[in-house]
Amino acid sequence: KMKTIQINGTIVDDEDAWIYDFFGIRNISPGMVKKELEEANGDEVTLEINSGGGDLFAGNEIYYMIRAYGPPTRADITALAASAATVVACGADTVRASPGMQYMIHNVSCGAQGDYRTMDHASAILQNANRAVSNIYQLKTGMSEKDLLKLMDEETWMEAKRAVELGFVDEIIGDMERTLAGRSSVTVYNSVAQILSE
Fold it and tell me: Which of 17, 55, 143, 151 has a beta carbon 3.0–4.6 Å from 156's, enabling a disulfide?
C-alpha cells in the first residue's frame, strides 16, 4: 500500500500558509506534510512534486521529515522541481522524473536593508545558506561542494537525462531498462515560486 503526498505550489512555513490559502495560491507547508505522513501510518510514500520552491527553512523541515520517515519513500517529479523543492526531493529514498520535467538549482536569496556592514552580513548569511543546501545535494549526488556551488552560481536548469547524469534523479519514469539513467538505483528563500512580500 502506498500513500501519495502532493508537493505542489509554493513551499511556505506553517504560519504563512493561511494567507496563501486566502488568496487561492497553491502551497505546501511542513505541517501539511507532517499530517499526511501521520495518515500514511507506516505505508510507503510517494511525493508528487511540481513546485518552484519557496521558503528554504520550510523546505529543510520537510526534507528532514521525509528522511526520518521509516518506510520507503519516493519522489516523482511531475513537471518542475526548483529551488527549495529540490531540497524536498532529495529527502526521498528514490527520485524519479517525468521525461518532460525541469529541475533547477540556484543560490538562495533574501532581502536586506542597511549600511555596508548589514549588506556584508547578509552576504555571509547567504553564502552559509548556499553551503548548507549544497550539503544536501552532496549526500544525494556524491558531487563536491565546489562543483555544486558552481552549478548553483550559474542557476542550473536540467532536463530529466541531465538530472540523472548529475545524480539528482535516480531514474526516468517510463525508462524501465534505465538505459537513460546510467546508474543504479532574515527569511531566506530558495525559489522561483510566487513569494508574497512581508
Answer: 151
Q: For 137-150, give one letter per residue: b (16+ CB within 10 A) or e.
A: bbebbebeeeebbe
pTM here? 0.88
How many residues are given for the chain? 198
Q: How far is CA 136 from CA 89, 111, 195, in A?
A: 10, 24, 23
CA distances 153 to 99, 106, 145, 157, 164, Å, are: 25, 6, 12, 12, 20
**Rounded-to-integer distance, Cα 167 and Cα 144, Å:** 12
Cβ proximity of 64 and 88 under 8 Å:
no
